[in-house]
Amino acid sequence: METLMVILVGILVSIGTYLILSKQLLRIVLGISIVGHAVNLLIITSGGLKTGSAPLLGEKAAGFTDAIPQALVLTAIVINFAVTAVVLVLCYRAYQSFGTDDMEQLRGDEHE
Amino acid sequence: MTIFYTFIFLPLISAMLVPLLYKYLNRRVHTGWFVLLVPLSIFIYLLQYIPGVAAGNTYKYTLSWIPSLDMNFTSYVDGLSLLFGLLISGIGTLVIIYSIFYMSKVREALHSFYVYLLMFMGAMLGLVFSDHLLVLYGFWELTSVSSFLLISYWYERKSSRQGALKAMLITVLGGFGMLAGFIMLIMMADTYSIREMIANLDVIQGHTLFIPAMLCVLLGAFTKSAQFPFGIWLPDAMEAPTPVSSYLHSATMVKAGIYLVARMTPLFGGSSVWFWLVAGIGLVTLLYGSLTALRQTDLKAMLAYSTISQLGLIMCLLGIGSLAIYFGPGDSGTVFTVATFAALFHLFNHSTFKGSLFMVVGIIDHETGRRDIRYLGGLMQVMPITFTIALIGGLSMAGLPPFNGFLSKEMFFAAVNDVSQSGIFGLSNIGILFPIIAWVASIFTFVYCLIFVFKTFGGTYRPEKLTRKVHEAPWGMLFSPAILALLVILIFFFPNVLGKYILTPALTAILPTMPISPYDLKISPWHGPNMELLMTIGVIVIGFLLFKTMKRWIQVLRNYPQGLTLNHWYNQGLSGTEKLSASLTNRYMTGSLRHYLIYIFSFFVIVLLSSLLLQHGIQFDTSNDAVISIFDAGLVLGMVIAALTVLLAGNRIMAIAALGALGYMVSMFFVIFRAPDLALTQMVVETVTTVLFLLCFYHLPKLEKRIERVPFKLTNLIISIAMGLTVTLLALSANGHKLFEPISSFFENAYELAGAKNIVNAILVDFRGFDTMLEISVLAIAGLGVYVLVHQRSKRREQRETE
């Protein structure tokens, strides 16, 4: 299962990177989102999968899955959301101000 | 904190009060009067150490800073540091009195001026009293910074800014060298303390890093003390207000290099490399400085080059004096101990006469508006007191009796004569060069001193060439140089008081192993008719003849081609470096985000893959893997399809929907992986994100199917596949190496420790509560950012509509 997940993460990273490298702003935002998902999955995978029950003490289970990656990912999800929101609004503003969403046209002047 | 540290840090602490004093009281009282109390009280405080230190005691103080890293401000008050401490606070007092009358309280930004000056004073005191090498280095750089700020004090002038930059570049370059040298010393001796290094001399002297460390430390000392060829920054530093030139750039800061060489003499002294570098460079600097000073027409520039040459003289004496360690106790050793003593004596004398001369130039500049000897002359009749001071300072520098410069110059001649006869380190062949160069340089020194005094004050008075009505300076400006001039004469008549109480203890600190008898160190003006006296008479006769015939030869010197000066090479080097780095930077800083991302991704791939390969880290171990159910496989397939849909979607709504689907599938994975909190959070966040996307996409242009060039697509494809591959390999190898036991068992007593049954929640809000709090602040900042970006837009639109 871990190996499969890692391969899935690799595919997601590839697709995300490809999108980030494209010229259109919206695609870049989509790419960032996908890479974010991939990283979250990677972190959760690194703690070992399906090794015990959910980390709730009330369950009286024999063993729990590793809680640390979960705590990390929980933080990451929220921060990801904040980043996506800001980048999206930034794209919107850039498009409103400059009338283009092409990165090649948005680049700075040669001698600034 | 002991009283000692209160006084050492007094300048830095009181610097904080200066802006307030300036703001509320400057209209009534010149801020300088308050600042004056600082060096004066430090001076008085340090005076009380003299009896103890003269009796051979040293005082140790320690101020804990980072004890766990062995970083403490350890101080030793010994003769050497006390000599410098007294110079810093004593000359500082006089300079501040002088500055009160020199700096107008109406026109000048006094608050910055005195803050910088106090900052320098504090840094310099810290430097000389610090025994910890890294702390010393910190103060050393702080003196460079404050010197930079003071040189650029009149920052609206281009020449001030350039001079400041030059001083900064050269001294900080040396500072870095010195830091490297210090680190080598620390590695060799395994201690930060200079005293402990001196105690462990054998370990250091036998080490392979001995010579490299010495070279690096000397680089720092030579750049700071303006030795050849690094001295070019000092003339340009004269753009600073004259009190600064007099204080930093003649009496104290430039002597920090001398201090360092003196401090390091017990470590490095006795080796031939040290002798040749210190004495040799010092001698070359002496000649170069005095010759270049001759052709200056600006009084301040002349004094700057003369400072360079005098610093060379002191450096040379220290180099010669280091031979005492080579010879050890005995007759030859004593001869060179006297040379070190002469170095300290001249250091003190130079501070007195050069300080007064700089202040005289300041007075001339202030009263006449000119500093160029071609326009000045005959000022003797309008400024008699200033003339007297200049005469005393100038003749002392020239080495004439009855002034203190005569005594130390005689001792210098004696030292170069001794070294030429010592016959070691290859001196038997070229040792004779020492007295010859010293003698020639002294003639030049004599001539420029005469030029300085008599071209300004002698000759005919030409008021038509001056912009102002000239009169004698106010008493406040004359006070400080007069005190210094008085010292110049007093030291000539009573040199042994100074020698006994101040210089001999300092000598003990430089040459701790040498027996020092007061009889050898007795300074007297008359030694009978000997070689030194003949040399001095020669200097006076030839120097006087040269001065009289000046018109015939001075043009030859002044027409020295500009292209061959050190300054020219410095400028060429600087502009060349700038051009090179600009063209290099422009080649890769293209302004295109995509290029920067490509650098980042390539770096990531190259560094991680190569280190994985080099460390043989690629290792797979699938034995501990969990089983894959059909449901899992279906989800994985679904996610790949969703991601591909995002990639290939022809319109926006489809891409966004696919992204949403991807997110929900991630949350399903969280359910499978026994992470209910994550699943819930992911579900909520994904919903909000999708809504946000849908809100924004309305305003964004359509996804266009653009026909891109093949190389563009190919680059992207290669990089993205490499990225995916790297991440996969890295994660697989990480899975294959289980190097540590998981620490999660620690959190399983969450209920006992935090009263929470949900471990993940306990980690977030209790164990790592701070992280979560900061995370919430990140969210708040992001929210503010979004709000501002949207709101600003609508406001502008409103404005446009009203127009």
Automatic annotation (TrEMBL), chain A:
Q: Which Gene3D superfamilies match?
A: 1.10.287.3510
InterPro entries membership: CPA3_antiporter_subunitC (IPR050601), NUOK/Mnh_C1-like (IPR039428)
Among Pfam families, the record links this protein to: Oxidored_q2
Q: Which UniProt keywords apply?
A: Cell membrane, Membrane, Transmembrane, Transmembrane helix
GO cellular component terms, A-Z: plasma membrane
How does this protein lie in the membrane?
Multi-pass membrane protein
Subcellular location as annotated: Cell membrane
Q: Give the primary localization class.
A: membrane
- The transmembrane residues are 6-21, 28-47, 67-92
Which family does the record assign?
Answer: Belongs to the CPA3 antiporters (TC 2.A.63) subunit C family.
Q: What's the protein called, per UniProt?
A: Na(+)/H(+) antiporter subunit C
TrEMBL record, chain B:
Single GO molecular-function term?
Answer: antiporter activity
Q: Where is the MrpA C-terminal/MbhD domain?
A: 638-702
Q: TM spans, by residue?
A: 6-25, 32-50, 80-101, 113-129, 135-155, 167-189, 209-234, 246-262, 274-291, 303-327, 339-364, 376-400, 432-454, 475-494, 533-550, 596-614, 626-648, 655-673, 679-700, 712-732, 772-790
One Pfam entry for this protein is: MbhD
Domain NADH:quinone oxidoreductase/Mrp antiporter transmembrane intervals? 130-427
- Location in or out of the cell: Cell membrane; Membrane
What topology in the membrane does the UniProt record assign? Multi-pass membrane protein
A GO BP annotation: sodium ion transport
* Primary residence: membrane
Domain spans labelled NADH-Ubiquinone oxidoreductase (complex I) chain 5 N-terminal: 66-113
What keywords does the record list, in alphabetical order?
Antiport, Cell membrane, Hydrogen ion transport, Ion transport, Membrane, Sodium, Sodium transport, Transmembrane, Transmembrane helix, Transport
Record InterPro entries? CPA3_Na-H_Antiporter_A, MrpA/MnhA1/PhaAB, MrpA_C/MbhD, MrpA_C/MbhE, ND/Mrp_TM, Proton_antipo_N
The record's Gene Ontology cellular component field reads: plasma membrane
Domain spans labelled MrpA C-terminal/MbhE: 714-792
The text of the family note is:
Belongs to the CPA3 antiporters (TC 2.A.63) subunit A family.
Report what the protein is called: Na+/H+ antiporter subunit A
> What is the organism of origin for this protein?
Paenibacillus paeoniae
